[in-house]
């Protein structure tokens, strides 16, 4: 990945009539309904954009969507990329760099996650206050990474405090249960063992998933303030662990998604 690659991607999108979006959004697994809230002006397949890779999961549409939401111009990644799809960190985070280069000033991220904290229930949502990177690498650890900014990025507060506070206030006003906690990011795609869930709890994780952290690291490198919300789709109790139920995971995502949409729509109004 080079700066020129980013410029070519941005040049292509602008040639399609894309204006400068103010807010970038990444939609996670089973969380594509927010698209229906948008007045869409452009919808472009990832595979048509130079240097983008393809989303390989059925639950990820694989489209870059432009339009307006709550009166603001937005760009949405409807579907993200994961290490477990065989992509590297540069490919996983490429869209974040492109959206920033297009002009985005804020980044809102969503994901589906398992609840490690047993005070949290499936079908609820969690505001990510901090994270633990267990993916075995960094999206800033490549030869020409310095071309994109400082690689020794401060991560003392990776999630934007003011936006987090805004989201908490919005949740309170709308009677939405919004937990706050630590998200651990693993490679996957296999789910965790009982021993791994115990380990995650010991090291301080409240939820676990397979995304988001690389995107947040890059956002911090390039000066893109970000927030992230996890939709809790299952409960990871190592002492009462049941086989994974994929249809139930999607059902829990669908149950919680309206709350996520409310939170982000109201936040966008305030940005």
TrEMBL record:
Keyword Plastid: no
Keywords: Glycosyltransferase, Transferase
InterPro entries, sorted: Nucleoside_phosphorylase_d, Nucleoside_phosphorylase_sf, Purine_phosphorylase
Known pathway: Purine metabolism; purine nucleoside salvage
Xref: Pfam families: PNP_UDP_1
SUPFAM superfamilies attached to this UniProt entry: Purine and uridine phosphorylases
Superkingdom of source: Bacteria
GO CC aspect terms: cytoplasm
Nucleoside phosphorylase domain residues: 22-268
Keyword Glycosyltransferase: yes
Molecular functions (GO terms): purine-nucleoside phosphorylase activity
UniProt GO BP: nucleoside metabolic process
EC number of this enzyme: 2.4.2.1
Described purpose of this protein according to its UniProt entry: The purine nucleoside phosphorylases catalyze the phosphorolytic breakdown of the N-glycosidic bond in the beta-(deoxy)ribonucleoside molecules, with the formation of the corresponding free purine bases and pentose-1-phosphate.
NCBIfam families associated with the record: PNPH-PUNA-XAPA (TIGR01697), PRK08202.1 (NF006054)
Family of this protein: Belongs to the PNP/MTAP phosphorylase family.
Protein name in UniProt: Purine nucleoside phosphorylase
Organism from which the protein derives: Wenyingzhuangia marina
